[in-house]
Amino acid sequence: MNVVGGTYFESCAFPAWAGLFGSGARAAMAVSALSPGTRLSTYAYAESAGDLRATMAAFEVETDIVAIGERLEFEYWHPLRKSWVPEAGRRYADLAVTGDVVLGFGMLEGTARLTAGRAVYDPRSADPASSFVRSGSRATEQLAYVVQDADLVRLGPLPDPRDAATGVMAREGATLVVSRHAFGGATVYRGDAPGIPVPAYAARRWFRIGAGDVFCAAFAHYWGERGFDAVGAADLASRCVAWFNDGARLPLPPPDELEGMEAVPGRPASGCRVYLSGPRRTMAQRWLFDEAAAYLDALGFRTETAFADDGPRSPTRAHWPPRPRVPHSALLALGDVADLGTNLHVGYAQANGMPVVLLAETASGGDLTMFSGSGCEVTHDLATALYRTCMACLR
Length: 395
Prior knowledge:
The protein has helices at 22-31, 49-58, 149-155, 161-172, 211-225, 230-245, 283-298, 340-351, 369-373, 382-394; strands at 2-4, 9-12, 17-20, 39-45, 62-68, 73-78, 81-84, 95-105, 112-122, 138-148, 176-180, 186-190, 196-198, 273-277, 302-305, 329-334, 356-359, 377-379. It is α/β, with parallel strands linked by helices.
C-alpha cells in the first residue's frame, strides 16, 4: 500500500505521552504487518527525518521524505482536546504518488496528488482546498471518502447526513462515503441508499489520538487491498480502532485476533443519562467538571449534576431523579476520593443498581480499595473515564 500524509510531533499532557507520528506515519505503521512493502510519502522536519527513516525501517516501511525547515507539533491537554494546532509557514511542492491502492490524507505543508486504482482519501477537514478532485487526484477504479461526522455535514452542506454524503460523492466522483462517529463506529453511504451503520467496539482504555488514522489505514487495507465489501472493511476498521485505543498499540493485528470483541450496543440517544459528581471548590475542579460535561454532551449523552448548583454541598442537598435507577444511566465520579459528598453519591448509586465510574488521577493502592472492592470501575485518565461511563450507559 502507498500511504501519503503528514508527519508531525504530537504530545499529550494527561496522560503524559509524546512521539513523532502524524496521519501518514501512524497509518503506515498501522498496516505495516498486514501489508508488507508499505511505502510512506511525507513531509518531515529536516532534523527529525533521520529518526523517521529509522522508525519506519523498524516497521519495514519504505519512505519518500521531503525535508522541510519547520517543526510542526500538535499538543493535547487530553486525548479529546487539542491545546495547540500548528500552522505551516509555507506550502511546499505537491507529493505526487501513483499506485494500485493509495491512502491519502490532507496535510498542512502541501497537497497530495494521487493516481490510484483504488483510493481512500481523508481530507482531515471540511476546507474546500482539501478536495480530492481539486488536488488533481484521480481514482481509475473506485474512491472511498472517509470523513468525521461533523465534517460530513459541513462538506454537504446539507443537514441530512445521507444528502451530504450524496453531495460529496457527486462532487468528488467517490464510489462511497464512510462517516466516522466520535464515539466509534461509522456509517457507510453508497449512492442515495440509506447509510449502513457499523458498530463501535469496546476497549479498556480510550486513547483517541490518531484513531482516525488507524481507521483509514485498516479500511484502505481491507477494502482497497483485500477486496472486502465496504461494510465488512469498515467493521474491521472499527475493531482495529478499539484495539489501538487500548494503549496506542501498533502495528495492527490480523483479523483473527479481533474476533470476539464486544460491540457497543447502539449509539448514544436522548435517553442516555450521566450524573456527574465531584468537588467544585477550586477553579481546577470546576474546569474538570465542566470539561467532562461538555464532552459527554458532544458524544450525545444527557448530563445532570448530582449536586444542587447553589449553596453548600451536603447530603441533604444532593438531588436524584424520582427513580434512582434510570435506564441507560450511570454516575461519573470525578477527582478526589476523599470528598465526602462524592463518596455519598457513589454509595447511593451503587445501592440503587446504577453503574459507577470513578476518575482517580492520582489516588492509588489503599485509597481505592473501597471503590474497586464494591464494583465501582476505577479509571485514571479523563478520556477513558468518559468512554467507560458511556459504555456503562449503553449496556
